[in-house]
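Please check this today:
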Amino acid sequence: MTQAIVFSHTGGPEVLGLQSQELTAPGPGQARVRHTAIGVNFIDTYQRSGLYPLPLPSGLGQEAAGVVEALGPGVSGLAVGDRVAYAGGPLGAYSAERLLPAAVLVKIPDGISDESAACMMLQGMTVEYLVQRTYPVRPGQTVLWHAAAGGVGQIAVQWLTALGATVIGTVGSDAKADIVRGLGCQHVINYSREDVVARVSEITGGQGVPVVYDSVGKDTFQISLACLSPRGMLVSFGNASGAVPPFAPLELTSRGSLFFTRPKLADYIASRAELEASAQALFERVADGRIKVAPSHRYPLAEAAQAHRDLEGRKTSGSIILLP
């Protein structure tokens, strides 16, 4: 038996409940993993609320770290006792122990804790594909990153700074501004009392930025477009304030032949080779100190609903983990 968070209908955090579940032996290509730390991400709230529909009832969670307890037939490259982490695969990371395809697991290098691994995989690999493959940022470029104090944002600020980029980060409070400045963010805009478009124009000498990374969605969509230079790219990768509303493609034309993309991590780690390369790029930057990742908030697994309330209520900064 194992304990897992399950929900049978969509709604607020209150729909999440802890249940006991049977756990069978791993089948062909599977591994049984005992979780030591579980990542909480904004996409989890989209799935719980119904913004991203799922067949119900369903588990929740795409990211965790743990220890391999058993392996099914046909699994190679792993051994019982290995420390592993993952981001993706079937939902169900909000659990004490689970079965999942061994192909989604990567070994955690020595020197990286389980807690750090649990909150870096989805967010860190997201940053990797966004800044190195969706729009490959070059040294000397200036980029705008919304929600810079969030889990993804904090990793992004460090990654972009290490690349030699100038980062403009938006935040919602002075306390969060202090956090991202400490991570190397050169320009911080508190959107609660500053005009983001005017400040970006001031910082860039009226030129705008070549790329905006936007996980906020509806509330920042027009702002993001207005901050781009001609032929710039808006990378929309989240809906924290709601989905981006429909818009006419001619709006991109009228603003200077802009590009718009709505990528997701799964399409950038679709093959084993891509997964390993993305994870390796992340691990290397954490191991050599260019990026520091640690959870800012910890909750018991049974308090997953409270973790969601705090995340959606913008009461958190950085990364959140659940502890079984």
The longest strand covers residues 30-40. The mean pLDDT is 95. The CA atoms of residues 251 and 258 lie 9 Å apart. The domain at 123-265 is CATH 3.40.50.720 (Rossmann fold).
